[in-house]
Amino acid sequence: MTGTTAPETSTETSTETLSKIPTRTVHLAVYDTFADWETGHATAWLARSGFDVRTVGPTTDPVTTIGGLRITPDLALAELRPEDSALLILTGADLWDTSDDLAPFAAKARAFLDAGVPVAAICGATAGLAREGLLDGRRHTSAAPFYLAATGYKGGEEYVEADAVTDGDLITAGPTEPVAFAREVLGRMGAFGGAKLDAWYRLFHDSDPAAYEELNA
How much is the pTM? Predict the structure, then answer.
């Protein structure tokens, strides 16, 4: 896959974006078989940029990630309202492809998008959104076209061969692209803009030593 081009926004534009976000709370969905590696870059750098990252689970009972980590969610999905959030992040999980247990998270993503609140989905979560009909008419990506085609969705013409794709309030990425996913999230949320966002990506994706100085200038 080839990467999408991050929005060309200046640091000033990034600051303006931050000031227009009504809340600084980001919600990370957590559930059993949560893919640990897929959202670490995004949530860490959102937190370092001043966002409050809260976890939301099916209930407030602990869940266990693919890596065996136990997470106690901050709130249950039924309590989550779009107006209380700046972003909903949906990570991959085996459960997206083996049961309907996570369908309520896709339904919540619909409520977010209908309310104009961004949703970012990676890996199996993109299949969940496809089943919900949220990728029909929106540019998107995933692991591979045939993976989403197996859901029976009608959005195949909007599939983009890219590491990560942003279409308005929707961000999607494949399972091997946590850094590109984070780039799109950080850009959309105004954490970084323009040259700093590019430097961040080159540092963490390409291990470019020059990018470190640019990022911290």
Answer: 0.89
